[in-house]
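Handout for the seminar on molecular recognition.
Each group receives one record of this type.
Step one: identify the two inputs.
Step two: read the structure output and locate the region that could contact adenosine-5'-triphosphate.
Step three: write two sentences on what you found, then compare them with the reference statements printed after the record.
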Amino acid sequence: MAAVSLRKVEKTYPNGFKAVHGVDLDVRDGEFMVFVGPSGCAKSTLLRMVAGLESITGGELHIGGRVVNDIAPKGRGIAMVFQNYALYPHMTVYDNLAFGLKLAKTGKAELDRRVRHAAQLLEMEHLLERYPKQLSGGQAQRVAVGRAIVKKPEVFLFDEPLSNLDAKLRAAMRVRLTELHRSLRDAGQPATTIYVTHDQTEAMTMGERICVLKAGVIQQVDTPTALYDRPANAFVASFIGSPEMNIVPAQWRDGAVQLGGVTLPLPPQRFNAPAAGAVQFGLRPEHIGLAAKPGSIAVEATLKFCEHMGAEVFTYVDVGGVAFSARLPAEEAARITTLPRGAALTLHFHMPHAHLFAADDAGLSHLA
Ligand SMILES: Nc1ncnc2c1ncn2[C@@H]1O[C@H](COP(=O)(O)OP(=O)(O)OP(=O)(O)O)[C@@H](O)[C@H]1O
């Protein structure tokens, strides 16, 4: 069992800067957990504390039920893959994979078995005799992952491992790493994984659960679907989903939201009525359409511009002085993309998907 638990974990750097504020988190045995958040939110600091590369200045870290605050990295049963991995240029892929095992004086037969098993899992058996300079970026990154696999760690730690790859390779590696995690689990070697990224698409597609961080504080820990459907606050709502959720200042009164001269009654079952007053209204671009749906409200808008994305058209509009974006299927959008700027449109806000957030970003509590 190698669950990873953080109990009131804190990090104050020697210069006095507090980067991590009382983080409580349970990563389950065998789970794929993603830490996501903008630059500086302390996702790398947290991961490095789990790895033992950064001291913990408050709270407790448990791995597999043991408190490991004072245990050196090599005693923690972890393996880490970095963004800037360095392969040994003068060694073949085989020797790069075998290097750590040789240091650990692993027997020759066992070493060979583990190297070949890792190569098979990562579909790189044909690359074993190559040197790093003969590999593509994606292949080299696979070797870096392979070096972690041969260690048979109980916990895998990934720190933005795909950042240096181009978009297409990143997408392919996402699938490969997710499949790798599943196949290790199916083979009875569940590896608890913590994967750090600033990329919400990576988080959403890879994580079984996602921990969203902001300024060293956890905002929400949930499944991708729950984060998308029920974001805990406006920060999570705008960080998760692409393009971003429309979040606009509004007034809340008598079960309705008023913004830009428009009144939008909200389905009461979704919200505990907050005190009347200033709120933030949230609606994802995919929940604004040209056709009415059950629970939708017609809203008059003027067209600003359209962005053609192939199957979809991102459409930017003005609703009574408030900017909104809509994500429309290309077929449906065809009738508006030829309209001039400033043309009048009727859009349908799909209110069952609407959100309300507190007005001040400091509070950021979801009122649903
Ligand atoms: N050695 C250090 N001394 C002081 N402050 C530090 C140190 N290392 C990091 N920080 C600060 O701690 C905060 C968290 O940094 P960290 O690198 O963990 O963030 P991150 O979310 O991983 O960001 P990025 O995606 O840019 O790597 C930042 O404000 C950073 O400036």
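Reference statements: Confidence is low (pLDDT under 50) at residues 362-368. Residues 13, 15, 17, 19, 37, 39-45, 198 surround adenosine-5'-triphosphate (CB under 6 Å).
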